[in-house]
Design goal:
This is Pyroglutamyl-peptidase I. This protein is an alpha/beta fold. It has five helices and eight strands. The protein has a single domain, classed as Aminopeptidase (3-Layer(aba) Sandwich). Helix 1 links the parallel strand 1 and strand 2. Helix 1 crosses helix 5, helix 2 runs parallel beside helix 4 and helix 3 crosses helix 5. It is globular.
């Protein structure tokens, strides 16, 4: 019998002008929907604090041994569901919810400047936009040098690229929590499918 896949999906706590964080609301809605009976879904709320991310993420990866970790964040500028391709190591100047900022201004001293997800977000985006989902999806290569980018980079490093980051617009601008949850579900199933497909491709090369 095939083992169930494990997927962790996180959202963030409120910060700044986001008194309700659309990312966590959408992730809680996603938890109600589930990802199907063959996938274990774990959700977690991430504090908007650099130090909390540094302790929480390694424990999530270690405890659940997920195939994929998807972080969801809110962007006041987003009008689409935005797939982030990479995380950045340096340039963290903004204070977090504890008024803290890393002295080094980076996630991982000596780490690579940029880590890309193993998943090609352009492919995921094209598939979703032609799927009749009814929600616009776009791709970005700059997650904003705040907790979203910081979390993504840390997770990409810990999971050797088996991570994704999705920015969602604030609730009602234009999508409801339910619509965002549907979109996240479609995104995650597409991400898993692509990972499967890529794994298969590597085996083929191996066999020849």
């Amino acid at each position: 019998m095939e083992q169930k896949k494990t997927v962790i999906v996180t959202g963030f706590e409120p910060f700044g002008e986001h008194a309700v964080n659309a990312s966590w609301v959408a992730v809680q809605e996603l938890e109600k929907l589930g990802l199907g009976h063959d996938i274990n879904l774990h959700v977690a709320e991430v504090p908007v604090e650099y130090q909390a991310v540094q302790s929480l993420l390694p424990s999530l990866w270690k405890q659940h041994l997920p195939q994929l970790v998807v972080h969801v964040g809110v962007s006041g500028m987003a009008t689409t569901v935005t797939l982030e391709q990479c995380g950045h190591n340096q340039g963290y100047m903004r204070l977090d919810n504890c008024s803290f900022c890393p002295k080094s201004r980076c996630c991982l001293e000596g780490g690579p400047d940029c880590i890309h997800s193993v998943i090609d977000m352009d492919t995921v985006c094209k598939r979703l936009n032609s799927s009749g989902l009814g929600i616009s999806v776009s791709v970005s290569k700059d997650a904003g040098r705040y907790l979203c980018d910081y979390t993504y980079y840390t997770s990409l490093f810990l999971g050797e690229g088996r991570s994704a980051f999705v920015h969602v617009p604030p609730l009602g601008k234009p999508y409801s929590a339910e619509q965002l949850a549907q979109a996240l579900r479609a995104v995650i199933l597409e991400l898993l499918e692509l990972m499967e497909h890529n794994k298969g491709k590597k085996h083929c090369l191996h066999d020849q």
